[in-house]
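WP5 quarterly update. Target: Photosystem I assembly protein Ycf3. Source organism: Synura sphagnicola. Length: 169 aa.
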Amino acid sequence: MRKARSNNNFIDKTFTILADILLRVFPASQQEKRAFSFYLNGLSAQDEGEYAEALNNYYQALQIEEDLYDRSIILYNIGLIYSKNGDYLKALKYYYFSIFINPRFTSALNNIAVIYHYQGIKAAEKQCFVLSESLLQKATFYWTKVVKLDPNSYIEAWNWLKTTRRIKL
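Structure tokens (predicted):
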């Protein structure tokens, strides 16, 4: 297991130092600190493209972490890894776990919409128009939630919803 980030980047080193200080002074139980340590190691491995190691750390953190908000973030990061590797069904599963815990997690909602949109476009290219429309309706559902929760962000989602006339303003 990695103790610190191996990048020589100033920001990475600063983050590592701050995280180590936080772990020492953070008013938390040893169990909470251990979960946070696994989470940080997962972030570091993910940042370096070491996805198997990142997943291992995130799964370890999930076994320990009790805070629901923190669990939703860990689940989201697991979803990011599966999405990055093209395993969209597993990514969706973890994004759904994340929003089950934190229904206002706009990043997870957005990523769900992005996957449905991508799959909808792919289905249209294969001339599976009924499937395509079904997937695009799901993308519409999640992007509509996103822009209602965070109207000043996700400009691409706003633009797609407006140009396809899928949202009423």
